[in-house]
């Protein structure tokens, strides 16, 4: 189905964007190490920048990781089951854990961003006092992407349970 493939593509694209944030993270950390140990003048902003870059890259990768079937699970037990039983376990996980979690973070994360923007929240630990709301925007975005990828995986697992077939994308 085209819808499923498009969501897979969006998840992968978000992960690619996340890798650029990871690359920026590496540059920031290396710069700070060089400043600290070679010049004896550590930066005051690198810790916060590194934390923010890592957080964004982590958040943007979640949907892709779900698509790749790489989220943490107890594989020792899970792999002993057949495809249909694994699909049933996945469906239950999506219904009782993933979708409620995504709903919570979408709803409250959006309010969190709005409040941060409205208050003009800035980082108190960084000397740059950069606004925080642009970083918080990635929370609802990432959980929207995760929810969409969860819907795709739910449809695929539902097909496995009902038809005994799978429409895997990856």
Report on this model:
There is one protein chain. With 170 residues, the chain is mostly helical. The chain has one domain (2-163). 76% of the residues lie in helices and 0% in strands. The chain is built from six helices and no strands. The chain has helices at 2-37, 46-67, 75-78, 83-119, 133-136, 138-163. It is elongated, with a radius of gyration of 20 Å. The mean pLDDT is 93.
Would you summarize the structure shown here?
76% of the residues lie in helices and 0% in strands. It is mainly alpha-helical.
Break the fold down into its secondary structure elements and pairings:
Blueprint: H1 2-37, H2 46-67, H3 75-78, H4 83-119, H5 133-136, H6 138-163
What tags apply to this protein structure?
elongated; 170 residues; mainly alpha
Radius of gyration: 20 Å
**Poorly predicted residue ranges:** none
* Helix count from the secondary structure assignment: 6
**Terminal CA distance:** 13 Å
As a percent range, the share of helical residues equals over 70%
How many separate domains make up the residues? 1
Query: What is the multimeric organization of the chains shown?
Result: single chain
Structural class assignment: mainly alpha
- Mean pLDDT rating: 93
What is the global morphology?
Answer: elongated
Strand proportion, as a percent range, falls in under 5%
Q: What letter string, H or E per element, gives the SSE order?
A: HHHHHH
In total, the number of strands is 0
Instruction: Please outline the major beta sheet.
Output: none
